[in-house]
Design a protein that fits this description.
Layout (H helix, E strand, L loop, with lengths): L4 E6 L7 H12 L4 E6 L7 H11 L8 E5 L10 E6 L2 E6 L5 H4 L4 E6 L15 H14 L25 E2 L4 E9 L5 E6 H8 L7 E5 L2 E4 L13 E5 L4 E6 L4 H5 L6 E6 L2 H6 L21
Parallel strand pairs: 1-2, 1-3, 3-5
Antiparallel strand pairs: 4-5, 4-6, 7-8, 8-9, 8-14, 9-13, 10-11, 10-14, 12-13
Length: about 300
C-alpha cells in the first residue's frame, strides 16, 4: 500500500522555521506520510494566489491525498477551519475563501468545521495554527481519521466565498482581464482562459489577436517561450491553461513594470486592420539590451 501524501501550501517563506516545524509535527503523528511542498512562497496573506496555486497543483497528486493550505490572515480569530472531501482528495484550510474555487463546482462528499481539540497540539498558539491545528489534523486525516470525527458538518452555502476575477467583454471582439500572478521568471499569468479566448474569437484565428498590456502590443499567440526570438515579448497559453505574457529569456514583469491586478486587453483584429499594420513591428519586440537570462520551465 502506498504511503499517504500530504501537500503543503503556505505563505510562510523559507527563512524561518515555520514550514519545517509543521513537517516535524506531521511526521511525529504520521511517520509514514510523504510530505510534499507545493509552495511556501505565496505572497503574504494573498488568499487568491494560494487558491489558484492549490487548484493548479492538486489534480496531479494521487487520489486520497491530503492538501493543507495555510494562508490565514485571520489566525487566532473566530474564523473556522474547514476539512473537506471532494474530487477524490481531502482539503484542509481556513474558512476565508481559500477553498472556495475548488469546492464551489465540485461534488462535495463531506465538509466539516474542525473543532475537536483531541486532534490538536496543546497548548494552541494564537499565532501558529499551522503547527498546532493544521499539521496534526492533516496527519490524522492521512492516517485514516474520518472527517466526521473532526467536528460538525457545515453546508457549502455557509462557508466564506471568494470573489474570483473574471475577464469582461470589451467591445464587439475584445476582452479585458487582469494579471493574477507573476511567476519567478517574471511571466505574467492572467485570468483569461483558453475557453474565454475561443468564445471571444467567434471563428477568428488566434493569430488575429492583439494583446495589450501597458505600452506593449503583441500580435498572435505563440506555442512556446522561444518562438518569439530572444528579448521579444510574446503571449502564449501556459501550463495552467491561462494566457501569459512573457519576455523570451527575460523578465516581462520587470521590463513592463507590471504587477498583479494590472489590466490586460485582448482585441481580435479583422484582416484589413492586420494588412494596414503589417509594416509596424509589435512594440517591445526589438529592444534586446539589458535582458537577464531566463530558464524555461
Amino acid at each position: 500500500m502506498s504511503p499517504p501524501v500530504i501537500t503543503l501550501t503556505t505563505d510562510f517563506g523559507l527563512t524561518d522555521e515555520f514550514a519545517g516545524v509543521m513537517k516535524g509535527v506531521i511526521l511525529s503523528r504520521c511517520p509514514e506520510a510523504q510530505v510534499v511542498d507545493i509552495s511556501h512562497l505565496i505572497d503574504p496573506q494573498d488568499i487568491l494566489q494560494a487558491a489558484e496555486t492549490l487548484d493548479a497543483a492538486y489534480p496531479y497528486f494521487p487520489k486520497g491525498s491530503v492538501h493543507m493550505v495555510v494562508v490565514d490572515p485571520g489566525v487566532g480569530s473566530d474564523r473556522r477551519i474547514l476539512a473537506a472531501a471532494a474530487r477524490g482528495h481531502l482539503f484542509l484550510g481556513p474558512d476565508n475563501g481559500v477553498l472556495w474555487p475548488i469546492l464551489r463546482d465540485a461534488p462535495v462528499d463531506a465538509l466539516v468545521s474542525v473543532t475537536e481539540t483531541a486532534f490538536f497540539l496543546t497548548p494552541v498558539s494564537a499565532t501558529f495554527h499551522g503547527r498546532d491545528i493544521f499539521a496534526p489534523v492533516a496527519a490524522s486525516l492521512a492516517g485514516g481519521t474520518p472527517l466526521a470525527a473532526l467536528g460538525a458538518p457545515v453546508s457549502l452555502e455557509d462557508i466564506q466565498r471568494m470573489e474570483i476575477p473574471v475577464p469582461l467583454p470589451d467591445g464587439r471582439h475584445g476582452l479585458t482581464g487582469r494579471v493574477t500572478a507573476v511567476d519567478r521568471f517574471g511571466n505574467l499569468i492572467t485570468n483569461i482562459r483558453r475557453e474565454d479566448l475561443d468564445k471571444t474569437a467567434v471563428g477568428r484565428s488566434w493569430q488575429q489577436l492583439r494583446v495589450e498590456i501597458k505600452k506593449c502590443r503583441i500580435r498572435g499567440i505563440s506555442d512556446a517561450y522561444m518562438r518569439a526570438g530572444k528579448a521579444a515579448f510574446l503571449a502564449l497559453m501556459g501550463s495552467r491553461n491561462r494566457l501569459e505574457v512573457a519576455l523570451c529569456c527575460g523578465n516581462a514583469a520587470e521590463r513592463l513594470g507590471v504587477r498583479k491586478g494590472d489590466p490586460v486587453r485582448l482585441v481580435f483584429e479583422d484582416s484589413s486592420a492586420r494588412r494596414r499594420s503589417s509594416k509596424t513591428p509589435p512594440e517591445g519586440g526589438s529592444d534586446r539590451k539589458g535582458i537577464p537570462r531566463q530558464k524555461s520551465r
